[in-house]
């Protein structure tokens, strides 16, 4: 239910944002650059520029929805939360003689994590005595309404005037009541549309948890040790994969024997996801650092091999002929032509490999690790510490994005001719 | 025995479908040192194949290429190449491109710089020394390619449609430059081109090749290159005999093209 509402709210905000920004642009100073004069934009990729306002609103909307559906204090409006306070419903009991009497059940619904006293209620007249109970919001409680009633074989036959039998549910104000097979009443207070913190904590909880872990650490290691060890594994695996994969790729691009020999291996290993290798790697290399670095090595190896091979194949034959005609030896050709010419491909491969490695290291740490970003998430999930899980996911995303930005900067610096030849 | 000698070259290779192609048949020519020869012909006449054999990138099935007394067995610095495009090294500056050959030989920097400075001035790029080659226009890139080839002091320069990718105006300017460089350096040049006009303007000798199998169809001795060294190329085109020779060669090539079309229509 909540999921559909979130989806519709998201679509509504997407549409609303579009019209609001269009209106703002129409009211503001018109854009008069060359692209703005193109009449054909649908199908002309070069005329499509990302609308930065859309990017900004997109991020804002995520936080708005997150806050609104989790009762965040940062967000001024919320969807209805769970019911709290005293919920009352009546029940009708029948004894062995067939006589009927009405009693009430008063349930004090309180915030989870706080204690509450039973509400004070008069026992009432007749043989059906009034009952009281407490329950946390989003939880449910089992009430044996007839336990304090007088008389033989007293059974509940109706709730709020509506007949009820075992297995049936009756809606009452502020919640619903289901009768169990043994005749007890299970009261579930109304949940509202907000999500429970153990499913989805509000953003401020995640930030609070981040500050706490950043200063105090988590599971014997500081946050920086967790993230640093993941990063070190990625760098080690990527480095090893590159120093084996790139020469192998070059060899495959330069020698028919190498290409014939390694083609089946590379083409076979490439579609095998590194995650599928985790069990074997653990069996062979154990669950410690060696195993993880071997796994990341394998994750980076094939990507880098294929990138280097493509880099060699991509060299314009005129360049090779020109170099030989200028008197270059094979070694000189390799160093001054093949190698620099393959750099753009190598960079593309390195970006892919980094992404794969970063994803794989988190997954490998989910399986077994003492420290690491993935380990943090999996350990927290075992204690239902959803805020740590979310924090971990956000940090992993930020670091992965950061790596890619750095790689792109390095690429622009080292391969300025890319895409301009 | 000075000069470049192409001795009775034939080239035949098998195709995957079992048939074979006779790309060249009994091609012979002797080119004197310092001579500029242009080769012309319809597509598929084997002119690029011939050039690749002379450069040493391909081995003929029969015959041999000799530079002086030495048989050609592979690419070498004594035979420089200028390609249509895409042969410059984008990761090097203009200067590094030009000095590539000498640098590979291990020539000291001071000497290299002298050669590079001189050549870049000759081709009019002295102000672009440290520029990246991808920042230059197509015409400028070909100037760099010419300078790079000359920096290596080859005996023979092989040009494979060096001006083919340029616009008409730039092309005209570059034709003048090629003539000037040829006269100044006295190198032997083999020029392959699609343009009849260019072949006439630049070649002292013009060889028309015919296709299937690739062979020499006709040879001309031409006065236009010599005239062009000291005159405006547009004047050379108006000079005596130019238009007539041009028309003759054009109709010759047209006939060959039509014959090819006819033959393929018969086959179909």
Notes on the protein architecture:
The complex is a heterodimer of chains A (421) and B (268). Chain A is built from eleven helices and nine strands. Chain A is α+β, with helices and mostly antiparallel strands and 421 residues long. Chain A has three domains: 2-68, no CATH class; 85-189, no CATH class; 205-414, MetI-like fold. A five-stranded mixed sheet of chain A has the order 3-2-1-5-6, with no helix packed on it. Chain A has a four-stranded antiparallel sheet with strand order 4-9-8-7, with no helix packed on it. In chain A, strand 7 (169-172) and strand 8 (175-179) form a beta hairpin. Chain A is elongated. The two termini of chain A are 54 Å apart. The model of chain A has no long low-confidence stretch (mean pLDDT 88). Chain B is α/β, with parallel strands linked by helices. Chain B has a single domain, classed as P-loop containing nucleotide triphosphate hydrolases (Rossmann fold). In chain B, 41% of the residues lie in helices and 24% in strands. In chain B, the strands form two sheets. A six-stranded mixed sheet of chain B has the order 6-7-8-3-9-10, sandwiched between helices. In chain B, strands 2-1-4-5 form a four-stranded antiparallel sheet, covered by helices on one side. In chain B, strand 9 and strand 10 (215-221) form a beta hairpin. In chain B, helix 4 (109-122) packs across helix 5 (138-151). The radius of gyration of chain B is 19 Å and the shape is globular.
Jot down its keywords.
heterodimer; A: 421 residues; alpha+beta; MetI-like fold; 3 domains; five-stranded mixed β-sheet; 11 helices; elongated; B: 268 residues; Rossmann fold; six-stranded mixed β-sheet; 10 helices; 41% helix
Short synopsis of the structure:
Chain A is an alpha+beta fold. Helices cover 54% and strands 12% of the residues of chain A.
